[in-house]
Write a structure and sequence with these properties.
single chain; about 140 residues; Rossmann fold; 5 helices; 5 strands
Length: about 140
């Protein structure tokens, strides 16, 4: 199973680095969308299916926190797992993102292994990228 990812960061070189790290990690990615700020990210998500968001916090036009707040207002977008990737280790900012609804946090710089582990955790798949079987035996 492959997943669609959107990387939201105001630095095009950082978006390329994050995309490369995700690829190196072995995470099964189908499409990788990119956006330079939260507003662009919301626009991309309104036109494309996205399974997980990887976003920076500090960006012009619309920050990662503001994008997260807007996503939580939308009945479809609120269900998408969001990983905040930032150089900020400020516990207050991390706590704010988690309280608003971020599913995970990765501090830059990070390794491909850290990236894969966090992506799999927030999506809810095992180490092979497969959804866990539930105990109920339901097939939906």
């Amino acid at each position: 199973m492959s997943f669609n990812v959107i990387v939201v960061d105001d630095s095009s070189s950082m978006r390329a680095v994050i995309k490369k790290i995700i690829t190196m990690s072995g995470f099964k990615m189908d499409q990788c969308f990119e956006a330079g700020n939260g507003r662009e990210g919301l626009e991309v998500m309104s036109n494309n299916w996205v399974d997980v968001v990887v976003t920076d916090i500090n960006m012009p036009v619309m920050t990662g926190i503001e994008m997260l707040q807007e996503m939580k207002k939308d009945r479809i977008l609120r269900e998408i797992p969001i990983i905040v990737v930032s150089t900020e280790a400020n516990t207050e900012r991390v706590r704010e993102a988690i309280e608003i609804g971020a599913s995970g946090f990765i501090k830059k710089p990070f390794t491909p292994e850290e990236c894969r582990k966090t992506l799999y955790e927030v999506i809810g798949v095992d180490e092979d990228g497969n959804y866990q079987e539930d105990d109920e035996g339901l097939d939906f």
